Automatic annotation (TrEMBL):
It comes from Halobacillus karajensis. Its cofactor is Co(2+); Mn(2+); glutathione. GO terms for molecular function: manganese ion binding; myo-inosose-2 dehydratase activity. It catalyses: scyllo-inosose = 3D-3,5/4-trihydroxycyclohexane-1,2-dione + H2O. It holds the Pfam family AP_endonuc_2. The gene is iolE_1. Pathway: Polyol metabolism; myo-inositol degradation into acetyl-CoA; acetyl-CoA from myo-inositol: step 2/7. This is Inosose dehydratase. The lineage of its organism: Bacteria, Bacillati, Bacillota, Bacilli, Bacillales. The keyword Manganese applies. Belongs to the IolE/MocC family.
Amino acid sequence: MFKDQTVKLGICPIGWTNDDMPELGSWNTFEQCVSEMALAGYEGTEVGNKYPKDRQELKKALELRQMQIASAWFSSFLTTLPFKETEEAFIKHRDFLYEMGAKVIVVSEQGRSIQKEDVPLFEAKPHFTEEEWELLAEGLNLLGELAHEKGMEIVFHHHMGTGVQTKEEIDKLMNITDEDKVSLLFDTGHLYLSGEDPLEVLKLHLPRIKHVHLKDVRGDVAAQVRQQKTAFLDGVKEGMFTVPGNGDIEFGPIFETLANFDYRGWVLVEAEQDPAKANPLEQAIIARNYIRETAKI
């Protein structure tokens, strides 16, 4: 389906240890995490909080397992804090990823985000004012310029519980930002959970998509989260997310669309789950087998 050597398959560490809820998987070490990733057949990973901060130590650990760094999450606060504060943190983050060989930088706007708050996920979702949209667009364009200084790209991560969650909001952000400076991360799970059609968004924004997160959703749990007005992190603990092939999303057309467009870059399995309930290695293998069968990767 995909041309040889055009797509790299990775997996995120959030299934082993959740950075927002360290108690989930607190017993899983960095070494166990990346070893099981490699054992399950993945060639890359994004960076988690347990990963060594020393570049040489991290490089050695990954090289021993024939693994690479695809990217890492960066929280921007362009709508709520002076740009200078985000800029300084971004440059440090950018330089670390550059030295690790990454080509893209995942950016998520956390101004007024409710991801970590104990409030209803759907009812309490923030909505940006026009002034906040302008601050976000201007700030992202500047971050894109900073990324270009190292030959890198920023990929914006639309996310549940933030001001850029829905198709309408993604469309608006793509329209008001410079296409040469701001690219898009396509996350199947966040779109599906938000009530959007991931395939529709994918087809609409293909030229801007330069990073992919493959996340599945358990529809029955998601419906319960909405009905009971559950907070985002509680929904994670209850199991609303899972790996591809283990939920309700049909990934075949998504893979076909990416392949027909000749997508080049990383696709990463990312599923926030409680590792005490969903064994990370077992889940990684389930996803790997499903992707091999469905996408021929």
